[in-house]
Amino acid sequence: MSAGWLDDDGLVTMPSGVTLRGRRIGATVSPADFALVLTGGPLPAWPHRRVDWPDFWIPRNRADALAALHEAYRRARDGERVEVMCLGGRGRTGTALAAIAILDGVPVGDAVGWIREHYNRHAVETPLQRLWLRTVR
């Protein structure tokens, strides 16, 4: 176990050692300190931030999404238990985790392969999501 989670399901450890959890919304897990929610529907009882990000698409507001990703990364780097979630826990969640990996130093061109190896082999589901990762700074 790492980062104070009750289990390791969905945990991703970035190259720097920063740990986040990716998951689908509605999965039963231990509470986080902060959740980045990338879908509509129920919100967790703990602190969270929702990004308007349609399924199989990219965020509607790039600046808001990047600010949210930076916040999630900062909180995780500061030791908080941070989770990233969408409906299925693969496309949007995988894209967001790949973006956070870029913030952590993974080269943009390697981010999709890296997150597929370290989180879910189906992460980042569409060509547009892969293209969007090039905008992460």
Enumerate how many helices there are, as a single number.
Answer: 4
Mean pLDDT score: 91
Largest sheet geometry = 5 strands, mixed
Radius of gyration: 13 Å
Named at the architecture level, the CATH assignment is Alpha-Beta Complex
Tell me the number of strands. 5
Count of separate structural domains? 1
Oligomer: single chain
Describe the protein's architecture and organization.
By secondary structure, the protein is α/β, with parallel strands linked by helices. It has a single domain (11-135), classed as Alpha-Beta Complex (Protein-Tyrosine Phosphatase, Chain A), CATH 3.90.190.10. 31% of the residues lie in helices and 15% in strands. The protein has 4 helices and 5 strands. The protein has helices spanning 62-77, 91-103, 111-118, 127-132, and strands at residues 11-13, 19-24, 34-37, 48-50, 82-86. Strands 1-2-5-3-4 form a 5-stranded mixed sheet, covered by helices on one side. Helix 1 (62-77) packs across helix 2 (91-103) and helix 2 crosses helix 3. The radius of gyration is 13 Å and the shape is globular.
Summarize the topology.
Layout: E1 11-13, E2 19-24, E3 34-37, E4 48-50, H1 62-77, E5 82-86, H2 91-103, H3 111-118, H4 127-132
Parallel strand pairs: 2-5, 3-4, 3-5
Antiparallel strand pairs: 1-2
Helix pairs in contact: 1-2, 2-3
